[in-house]
Write a structure and sequence with these properties.
277 residues, mainly beta, Jelly Rolls, seven-stranded mixed β-sheet, 2 helices, 44% strand, EC 5.3.1.17
């Protein structure tokens, strides 16, 4: 079973007048994992889709949602999957891929059938998708194959490891890029100093957050910032004009996914912390 919801894009001048409730209604994705369902959010920011597949008692087939006006989900799209739970299986047009904890799978345009299923463990498949103009091969990517970068400093509470899993230096994609950032123990700030990149939008998905703890995700234009508090297994949409940073009451891990006209990971417009308002 595949369920979906639709989100419009927003002008930054409108967003700065939103109440807390309106901000959460438009940008927070509160529930990605529903038992025996695929839950998707289709956003008009670069027509990006984010969601989760949570097979518990049965396998789940990825179906084309109404917004796609297509016979199959991947007729004009590419797909990225990162498993944040126990080992599971993803079957793509009959070929089975075992996807372990924190492993990724890229599925190219044109594949007809994608099926998610549990094994003896319970997987949580986090899904991102973007429009695609070319078909690239399906490829599994483990953390050993990722590009790994260490950033930050414990002095500034932002020491972190960035695992670039589905980026163009690791796997061929059209525009989809995904990776995973791990905050080290005692560090709470992500993407600080922050940045914007008007060539790409982004979605952050937070997980491995200790029960009872929270992350405050900062968004908005650098001189008009807003915040949204998130819990474990929740995601937030980041427009191209918005910063995307966060601070938690404990350390955590998050997955960043993005799409747009530029595949250069380093294409960022940096903002110094003292410039934020």
């Amino acid at each position: 079973m595949t369920n979906s919801e639709f989100r419009y894009a927003h002008h930054p001048n409108d967003v700065k007048r939103y109440t807390t409730e309106e901000l959460r209604d438009h940008f927070l994705i509160p529930e990605l994992f529903v038992k025996d369902q695929i839950s998707l959010t289709y956003t008009m920011y670069d027509r990006y889709i984010a969601g989760g597949a949570f097979p518990v008692t049965k396998s789940l087939k990825l179906e084309a949602i109404d917004e796609l006006k297509a016979e199959n989900f991947l007729d004009r799209r590419e797909l990225g999957v990162i498993n944040v739970g126990g080992k599971g299986k993803v079957t793509v047009d009959g070929e089975v891929y075992e996807i372990g904890h924190r492993e990724a799978l890229y599925v190219g345009k044109g594949n007809k059938e994608v099926i998610f299923e549990a094994t003896e463990e319970q997987p949580y498949f986090y899904i991102n998708s973007a429009p695609a103009h070319q078909a690239y091969p399906t490829k599994k990517v483990t953390k050993k194959e990722a590009q790994i970068v260490e950033l930050g400093d414990s002095k500034y509470s932002n020491k972190r490891i960035i695992n670039k899993l589905l980026v163009n230096q690791v796997v061929d994609t059209c525009q989809l890029q995904m990776g995973m950032t791990e905050l080290q123990e005692g560090n709470v700030w992500n993407t600080m100093p922050p940045h914007t990149h008007e060539r790409r939008m982004e979605i952050y998905f937070y997980f491995d957050l200790e029960e009872g703890q929270t992350v405050s995700h900062f968004m908005g234009q650098p001189q008009e910032t807003r915040h949204i508090f998130l819990q474990n297994h929740q995601a937030v949409i980041s427009p191209e004009w918005s910063i995307h940073a966060g601070a938690g009451t404990s350390n955590y891990t998050f997955i960043w996914g993005m799409a747009g006209e530029n595949m250069d990971y380093g294409d960022m417009d940096g903002v110094e912390p003292y410039e934020l308002k």
